[in-house]
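Hypothesis: this fold can be encoded by more than one sequence.
Test: take the structure tokens below, design a sequence, compare later.
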């Protein structure tokens, strides 16, 4: 029998059928919490109302047994997307702020200064009502709010005083220090208001959960010195990785990149040497994810010796299949976000045992993590000689090279959920 101490109320804007990496963190936590004897209850937004940039309906299968309560919302992002692209989805911002046209600059200013902490804050009153209803009807010990959007944490802030509940905030990404905030033309007054709001959340919550520690924890501790911080990274789906078996192409060098690719990532640093290598051996570059036509056109025109295969956005399962056909997996850390995150994609890359080349700071948390692999490297974009040397090393051993990672099982989604239970949920009740 489930006790109130084993009930976890999770407030997450992103939930299947939303696609992308952001949704998977709590989707998997919920899945394995249920499997491990807990009862997760999810408050999220109606699919038709939500501003989701991408959809992945296949993820619904992972959480079909999870209790989900969906609410309405009121927010401007779909209208902005339609006005700028003619589509209610294509123009929803992802990982970068576009500022080329006057309309884009105006939109960035409005978004940065009039929607604090973000443009999805219109969901907050609807989510508050849904959470209130559940907490009044049931005995529940734990409330989790996860962001981005960080406006989700306002739900916990409003309800913490009303209900005696253990409230943890999950920062999947930083808040005020998030790298693209510097592109939003934010005024000093806006920044101070946002800092005050973040600090209020940090001080009021029972604890703060993040995907990385290090520099991010130091930044957050400076705002809430007495707060408790726990770092639990994103993981990989061990069941899915083991289930998928595919063959690599033999007569070409196959390079794969999956995920979001923007102008704020140094992809040219790898594509230029790959284009030169293509003079000697056939090189195929497969891209899957949210990638603009502008970037695709740039690659086609500048690196025309590489065979480019653009798959568009694919389901999580298809993404894993594509990874497993590669001789080399590529990753590009967002410029300005070197110390802010270790993506779930990197964990999935590691789990495939395929060599990895990541572009970014070797001294970052992600760089130190990638270094643990036997055939994976984080290299600065400016270090062209080391990039070329690593590419040649992988090409020369492409039929046999394996990327071994010690204690990989500790990074599975199930293992990390056990850490969540022991370090956050149980610890909070006994602490």
């Amino acid at each position: 029998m489930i006790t109130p101490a084993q009930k976890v109320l999770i407030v997450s804007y992103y939930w299947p059928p939303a696609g992308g990496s952001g949704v998977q963190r709590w989707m998997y936590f919920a899945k394995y919490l249920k499997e491990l004897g807990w009862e997760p209850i999810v408050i999220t937004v109606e699919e038709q109302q939500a501003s989701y940039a991408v959809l992945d309906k296949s993820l619904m299968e992972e959480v079909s047994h999870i209790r989900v309560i969906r609410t309405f919302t009121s927010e401007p992002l779909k209208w902005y997307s339609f006005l700028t692209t003619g589509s209610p989805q294509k123009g929803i911002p992802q990982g970068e702020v576009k500022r080329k046209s006057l309309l884009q600059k105006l939109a960035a200013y409005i978004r940065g200064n009039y929607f604090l902490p973000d443009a999805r804050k219109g969901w907050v009153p609807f989510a508050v009502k849904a959470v209130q209803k559940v907490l009044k009807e049931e005995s529940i010990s734990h409330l989790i709010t996860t962001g981005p959007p960080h406006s989700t944490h306002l739900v916990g802030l409003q309800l913490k005083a009303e209900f005696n509940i253990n409230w943890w905030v999950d920062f999947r990404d930083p808040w005020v220090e998030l790298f693209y905030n510097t592109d939003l033309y934010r005024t000093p007054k806006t920044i101070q208001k946002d800092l005050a709001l973040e600090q209020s959340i940090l001080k009021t919550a029972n604890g703060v959960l993040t995907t990385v520690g290090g520099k991010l924890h130091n930044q957050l501790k400076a705002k809430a010195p007495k707060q408790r911080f726990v770092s639990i990274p994103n993981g990989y789906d061990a069941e899915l990785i083991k289930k998928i078996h595919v063959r690599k192409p033999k007569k070409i060098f196959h390079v794969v990149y999956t995920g979001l690719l923007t102008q704020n990532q140094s992809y040219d640093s790898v594509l230029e040497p790959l284009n030169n290598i293509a003079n000697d051996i056939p090189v195929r570059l497969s891209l899957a994810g949210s990638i603009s036509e502008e970037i695709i056109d740039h690659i086609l025109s500048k690196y025309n010796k590489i065979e480019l295969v653009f798959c568009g956005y694919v389901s999580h399962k298809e993404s894993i299949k594509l990874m497993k056909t590669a001789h080399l997996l590529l990753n590009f850390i967002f410029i300005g976000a070197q110390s802010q995150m270790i993506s779930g994609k990197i964990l999935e890359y590691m789990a495939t045992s395929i060599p990895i080349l990541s572009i970014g700071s070797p001294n970052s948390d992600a760089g130190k993590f990638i270094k643990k692999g036997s055939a994976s490297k984080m290299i600065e974009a400016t270090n062209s000689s080391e990039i070329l040397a690593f590419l040649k090393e992988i090409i020369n051993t492409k039929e046999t090279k394996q990327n071994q990672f010690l204690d990989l099982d500790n990074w599975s989604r199930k293992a990390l959920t056990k850490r969540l239970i022991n370090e956050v949920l149980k610890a909070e009740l006994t602490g």
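The chain has a mean pLDDT of 89. The first strand starts at residue 7 and ends at 12.
Hypothesis status: open.
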